[in-house]
Amino acid sequence: MTAGDDGKRHKTWFFHMMLSNSRYSYYEKVYNQRVETFIQCHINAFEYFKGIPECVRIDNLKAAILQANFYEPVYQELYKKFSEYYGFSIIPCRIYSPNDKGKVESGIKYVKKNFFAGRTFKDGQDLDRQLRYWLDHTCNRRTHGTTRKIPEQVFLEIEKVNLKELPETAFKMPKVGCRKVYHDSHVYVDYNYYSVPYEYVGKEVEIEIDQLVRISYNGKTIALHERLRGKGEFATVDSHYPKYKMMNTTEYQEKYQLKMATIGKFTEKLFFLIIEKQKPYWQRTVQGILSLTKFYPQDVLELACKRALAYNIFQYNVIKNICQNGAYNLPVEFVEQAVSL
Q1: Tens digit of pLDDT for each residue in 88-105?
Q2: Starting from the edge strand earliest in sequence, which strands make up the sheet with 186-189, in order?
Q3: Which positions ≥6 away from 120 have C-beta within 8 Å?
Q4: Confidence at residue 4, expressed as pLDDT on a 0 to 100 scale
Q5: Residues facing residue 188 across a β-bridge
Q6: Taken in order 60, 63, 64, 66, is the CA torsion positive or negative?
Q7: Distance of alpha carbon 267 from alpha carbon 97, whole angstroms
Q8: CA 216 to CA 257: how far, in whole Å?
Q9: Which residue in 25, 16, 15, 42 sits closest to 144, CA to CA?
Q10: Domain locations in the chain?
Q11: Under the phi-then-psi rule, with left for phi > 0, alpha for psi from -120 to 50, and beta for the rest, what region is 242?
Q12: CATH code for 2-162?
C-alpha cells in the first residue's frame, strides 16, 4: 500500500523492465494490472530507453498471456497487437522455472530494499518524482552486484545502439476490458448491448473499443460490431442466437404478444410498436415493460402504455418514469391511427 495521486492509500504494484546485458532498468508504480496499464508501462520504458529491444521476456501475467503454454501460449489480443506494432517478440517465462525471471525478481527485491526503505511519500506524484530521481542517480549508476559494472555505462557504450528505433506515432490504445456474457447472448459496454454467439453465455470475454467493438475469447475474435453512439441500444446478429430462440420467429414473438395483451389493449399495441421500431433487439425492452408488473398494478401499466403511445414513445425507461411520477393519470388525446400496426 502506498499513497495515491489523491493522497489516499492504494494497493500498488511496480512494473520493472530491465535490459538483459547492461541491467539498465526502468521502474514505474501502477494501481492496477489492466492490459492497457501494462502496455502503457512498456511504452514508457521504451521511451526511457529511447529504443525497443528485439524481444521481451514476460511473466505469465493475464495482461499479456491468457493461457500459459511453453509451446503454444495464448496471448492477450491487444498485447499481441502492441508487440507487432513495436516490432518485438514475446517470450513467456516457463511455468515453475524461476530462473527465467530471476533478473527482474532480483530487481523488485532491490527496489523494495534500496528505494522504499525509510522513505515517506506525500502522494503518488511525490512517489513518482522520488522514484525517477533514484532510478537516474542511484539504480542505474551503482555498481551492479552481479556484473560488477555500472548499468548506465554499459547501456550507453554497448547496448543502446542495438535497440530498434521508436515508431513515429505512438500505439493507438483502444478502450479495453472484460465483460460477462448475459443469458441473452449480449454484453453490456458503455451503456449499450452487443451480441456474441450463444455458446459463450456465462463466460468472461475481452472487449476492445475504438470505432468498432471487438469481442474476443482466449485470444480469438468471436464478434465484431460497429460502435453504437447512443445509450440503451442493441447491436445484434441473429446468428448469435440458437435457432429455437431467434428473435424474429413468429412463435417467439407471439409468446410475448400474449403476455402484453393480457395487461390490456394499449400494452399490446405498444408491443407492435416496439417490434416495428426495434426489430433486432425488441425482447429486452418488452421484458423490461413486463417486469413493471412486479411494482405496479396492471391497470397503471396499461394507462402508462396508453400515454406512451399517444406520443409515439416505446422506451422502457420512459414508461417506467410515467408509472413512477403518476403521469399516467394525466389526460391525453389518444389517436389510434397515429400508430402503424
Answers
A1: 998 876 554 444 455 667
A2: 186-189, 192-195, 234-235
A3: none
A4: 59
A5: 193
A6: positive
A7: 65
A8: 35
A9: 25
A10: 2-162, 175-243, 247-338
A11: beta
A12: 3.30.420.10
